Amino acid sequence: MHKGNDIVPGFSLKAALMLAMVSAAAVPASLLTTSIGTRKLSVGDRVRFTVSAIVGKGTTITPPATESNFGTIVVKEWNLHKTERGKSDSCAYEYIITSYTPDPCTIPELSFILETGGAVDTLRTEAIPLQIISVLPSDTVDIMGLKPPLSAGKAPMWWLWLIGTLALAGFVTFGGIWLNRRLRKTPPPPPPVPPYEEAIEALSNLGVKKYLQRGLVREYVFELSEIFKRYIGRRFKCNAVEFTTEELVAWTGAADLPKKLRAAIEWFFRTTDPVKFARQIPDTPTLERFEREVRDFLEVTKPVEQGTQTPDGTITGAADLQPATGQPAAAPAQPEKGART
């Protein structure tokens, strides 16, 4: 495990010496450094925070998730800049961060996972404390002791007539709108498309776009994830579209889903996160499994309409919809939602 150096701005002497050693080595070692535009900011100010890594050829870096690893710091956006060299690669992760709390805060220690030829290593940055500057001027005085202004003379009454006239006009206007809506018969809106049919149609439209044939792997995975989350949210009546991966995994336990369905959800979103946020490119079997997992989940949880059988063998009426797994169709409790980025 390695820790990086905090640089404000530029490299320290120690980091420069290590960089020279890495450049001269036959097999480059791993080097992680950080830099930040300023450690003093006001609430809502945006600051550029950069983590630079020099690693050997063929090394895959997995950065920390921005939703859960930055503490009270809010990551507004981030980008990766990669430069390939002869015996090593240089990767720079640029984060735009801010804070919405007036208290001092700290960029916590961040872990970057390195994988080279089956070997796994971890590079960690050092925690960087930040100072929140007050926007009030230093000579501001307390005005709590000031008395309200005194009034003199008789107040004019014209404003009462104005308020009464406006109130009457508003009453007449809104009364006319309400009466017009009551008298006008409008057809009820069509019922929404059931979750299963909506998801199947969305998957069909996704195939028409041919993202994978055009090399747009990240776009394909993003849209497939949204289809999956929208189906889970509508099917089980939860806010899955707004959940992070950790919140979604926690929800599956609170929802008491079968073990096979919980495993499918957890595998899909934990495997697609590096593709969406770290721009990793999975192998072809994994890409093909993404859509297969979604379609299998849809088929297993597709509601089945049931009715009441009469003595003559006919089915009358429609009962509640039950999922194909046999679990009740009632909406499960949602887990407590944490802070989001």
How would you describe the overall organization of this protein?
The chain has 341 residues and is of the alpha+beta class. It has two domains: 2-132, Immunoglobulin-like (Sandwich), CATH 2.60.40; 195-323, Up-down Bundle (Four Helix Bundle (Hemerythrin (Met), subunit A)), CATH 1.20.120. The protein is 35% helix and 22% strand. It has a five-stranded mixed beta sheet, with helices on one face. The two termini are 28 Å apart.
**Chain-averaged pLDDT:** 78
Number of domains: 2
What composes the largest sheet? Answer: 5 strands, mixed
The oligomerization state is single chain
CATH architecture of the largest domain: Sandwich
Strand content: 15-25%
Number of strand segments: 16
CA(first)-CA(last) distance: 28 Å
Strand order of the largest sheet: 2-3-5-8-7
Counting DSSP H or I runs of 4 or more residues, the number of helices is 7
Report helical residue fraction.
Answer: 25-40%
Structural class: alpha+beta
CATH 4th-level superfamily of the largest domain: Immunoglobulins
SSE order and pairing:
Elements lengths: L1 E2 L1 E3 L5 H12 L6 E6 L3 E2 L5 E10 L3 E3 L11 E11 L3 E11 L6 E3 L3 E6 L2 E6 L3 E5 L25 H26 L11 H15 L7 H20 L8 H10 L4 H19 L6 H18 L1 E2 L3 E2 L5 E2 L5 E2 L18
Helix pairs in contact: 3-4, 3-7, 4-6, 4-7, 5-6, 6-7
